[in-house]
Amino acid sequence: MTVITRFPPSPTGFMHIGNARTAMFNWLFAKHEKGKMLLRIEDTDRTRHSEEAVQAIYDGMNWLGLSWDGDAVSQFSRSDRHTEVAEALLEKGMAYKCYCTSEELEAMREKAQKEGLPTFYDRRWRDKDENDAPADVKPVIRIKAPLTGETVIEDKVQGKITIKNEQLDDFIILRSDGTPTYMLAVVVDDNDMGVTHVLRGDDHMNNAFRQKIIIEAMGWDTPIYGHMPMILGPDGSKLSKRHGAVSLEDFQAMGYLPEAVFNYLLRLGWSHGNDEIISREQAIEWFTIDNIGHSPSKFDYDKLENLNAHYIKELDNERFSILVQDFWTKLKVPQISEDMLKGFLQLADELKSRAKTLKQAAEESVFLSYSAEYNFEGDALNILTDDALTLLKDLKRSLSGLDDFSTDSVQSACKQFAKENVDGKLGKIGMPLRAAITGRTQSPSVFACASVLGKDEVLRRIDFAIDKLSS
Ligand code: GLU
Predict the structure, then answer these.
(1) Which residues constitute the domain of residue 159?
(2) Partner of 53 for a Cys bridge, out of 11, 67, 275, 391, CB 3.0 to 4.6 A?
(3) With a 6 A CB cut-off, is 272 part of the ligand 1 pocket?
(4) Which residues are the active-site residues?
C-alpha cells in the first residue's frame, strides 16, 4: 500500500504553529514511507475566503520546506461531488431530508439542555413521510447515525477508543442552501484522493466517529487515524495569541530560522530517544507514528530560542548575510552598500555566536550602514554623558594617531588610554566608544566594530556624538 497523507488547512490568513506541526508530521510520515502528501485547501466558507489567505498557506509550507504532491485541491471546487454523495446517501436510505424550522430546532436545543441529553436533534424527520413536508421550508440532509451499539476507532496515537452510538447525532451533511458541511466534504475528499492515513489534531477525534458513519454508509475504506495532542501554552491552556507568537509568520518576523522551528515543532510531540538536535534527513529516516507523544506538550519559547541560536551558529556566512539583509531593510537601511556587506562578513562569526534571532543580529550590525539615519538608543544616551564625551574627545586624539586600525591595534590604544585616564578601567572608555559608534549598548566587540568601520568613520562618529549630545 502506498501511504497517502493529507494536510487540509482552512485558509485563515496565517499558519498557526499547531497546523504547521500537523503539516510537518504528515509530510514526514509520507516521506518516511516513500508515499505522498496531498494538500487540500478547505475553502468552502466563501464569506471569509480570500486569495491572500490561501497564499499564506503556501508561504508557510514553503518557508518550512514542506512540499506536497500534485496540485493543491480546492475543496470548494468539489462541491458538486459532495452533493452527489449526499444524494447517493439519500438514495441508499442512509440519509434523509429534515424540514425542521429554526424555531423547532431551538426548542429541541433547549429541551436537550434541560434534560442533559447527549444530542439535541430528536430525529423527527428520520422516518417521517416526505409528503408531510412543509412547502415553505428548504430541507437539510441529515445522516442516519446508528442508534444502538458501539463504534470503535483504533487510533494510532490515542489507542483504541470506543463510544456508544447513542452519543452520535443525525448530523447535517448538506445544508438547506445546498452547501456541504465539513463532515461530508472531508470524507468525500479523503476518499476520492485515496488518503490512507489521517494525522490531525485530537480536537477532531469526535469528528472521526461521525465521519466513519458516512464512510461506512458509502462502503468506503476507513483511513488509519492518528489524533495528535494539542499544543498548549506555558500555562497549560490551549496555545493562543495571548501566550505570544503563534503563527509561522510571527516567528519568521521575529527572526527565527525555519530549521529551528522545524526542529522545535518536531520535538514538541514526537521523540527519538533523547535526541534534541535532529536534522530534516534524520527526521525523515526516524519518523514513525508510534513515537508521537500521547499527552499534550507545552510550548516553551525559551527552548525554541535556544534552538534558534544553535541553528544561527550553524549558518554559513553567505546565507546569514542574505537573511539578515531582510531585517536591515525593515530597520530602514536605505541602501545596503558593498562596504556594509564586507563589514558584516568580517563580524559575522561573532554576530552569529551572540544572536538568538536574526533580528538581533540585524540590530547589532545595522550600525555598519553609513547612510542609515543615525540615532542613539536610550541606553546609549545614558552612557554618553558630558564626562564620557570629554573622554571620547581625548580618545579621538589617540585613535587619530594610529596607522594600523586593526582590532588589536584599536584595543591596545584603548587599553593604553584607559591606563592613563581612567585607572585602567577599559569599560569606562569602551562603553562610550561603543555607544558613540554604534548608537547602542549591545554589539560585537567594540574594537572589532571600530576596526571594521575604519579610522575616518570612527573619528567622524565620535565628532557627531560630541556635536549632537554635548550640553
Ligand atoms: N480544515 C480542518 C482543520 O483545519 C481539517 C480537519 C481535518 O484534518 O479533517 O481543522
Answers:
(1) 78-228
(2) 11
(3) no
(4) 241
